[in-house]
Write a structure and sequence with these properties.
Blueprint (H helix, E strand, L loop, with lengths): L5 H15 L2 H17 L16 E4 L4 E3 H4 L5 E5 L8 H11 L1 H7 L3 E5 L3 H11 L4 E4 L4 H5 L3 E2 L3 H9 L4 H5 L6 E2 L1 E6 L5 E7 L8 H12 L5
Parallel strand pairs: 3-4, 4-5
Antiparallel strand pairs: 1-2, 1-5, 3-8, 6-7, 8-9
């Protein structure tokens, strides 16, 4: 049986919410995602051809990952996600571990999934799913900000969180509402972006196939 697409898996998540969530809760979620799509400043998003600025990420198990180290022997793949407890992220990252990571490893292409959440909380998602690729913290959203992919929850979402006594900044350990939009990048050995896909709607994420195709192209390796 073939692997379900990421689109199918995330559609199942939304369908489950339609069946089980209270209407007001579902409306809040749908409206937030719609607002992010409508307000997206796509001209600011990282694009193919951009030169990436130098960066350093904190791997949740202690390593330091830099642009130089990731691209030292060829291209690298960088996936941005929200945080360890994000339901969609807990679908997307295991999907990438099954459908993308083994093929990239065979090509010698490193894969790193990035969130602003502090390492001691972010490590949960790597351990929970036994992820075989790097999971790393973009401390203070430094890289996400340079790539133009950050967002802040709308007023209704913030008000609902405050009414429940919750704050995403506490969950993240960042103290702010800022989160990265779902994004997938393939960066060449020349440190230029070869492929970039940014989605303001966190239930729409990049499938494995275009990422793998871009990595092969960066290596000049024919498709299997």
């Amino acid at each position: 049986m073939s692997e379900p697409t990421l689109r199918q898996l995330l559609a199942e998540l939304h369908a489950e919410r339609e069946r089980t969530w209270e209407p007001a809760q579902l409306e809040l979620n749908v409206n937030q995602r719609r607002d992010l799509v409508e307000a997206a400043k796509t001209a600011r998003f990282v694009k193919a051809g951009d030169a990436l600025p130098p960066f350093e990420l904190e791997e949740v198990e202690g390593a330091r990952l830099t642009l130089e180290s990731l691209t030292a022997e060829g291209p690298a793949v960088v996936i941005f996600f929200r945080f360890a407890g994000c339901p969609a992220c807990n679908i997307a990252l295991p999907y990438y571990d099954r459908a993308l990571a083994p093929q990239l490893a065979a090509l010698g292409v490193p894969l790193v999934a990035v969130s602003p959440q502090i390492p001691e909380r972010l490590v949960e998602i790597k351990r929970k799913h036994g992820l075989t690729f790097h999971v790393a913290t973009d401390r203070d959203n430094v890289l996400g900000r340079k790539l133009g992919i950050l967002y802040v929850a709308n007023a209704a979402t913030q008000a609902a969180a405050k009414a429940k006594g919750t704050f995403i900044g506490d969950t993240l350990g960042t103290g702010t509402w800022e989160l990265p939009q779902a994004a997938a990048l393939v960066v060449g050995a020349d440190r230029r972006v070869r492929f970039a896909d940014v989605s303001p709607d966190w239930l729409v994420r990049t499938e494995a196939e275009p990422i793998l195709a871009a990595a092969r192209a960066a290596l000049a390796v024919p498709a299997a």
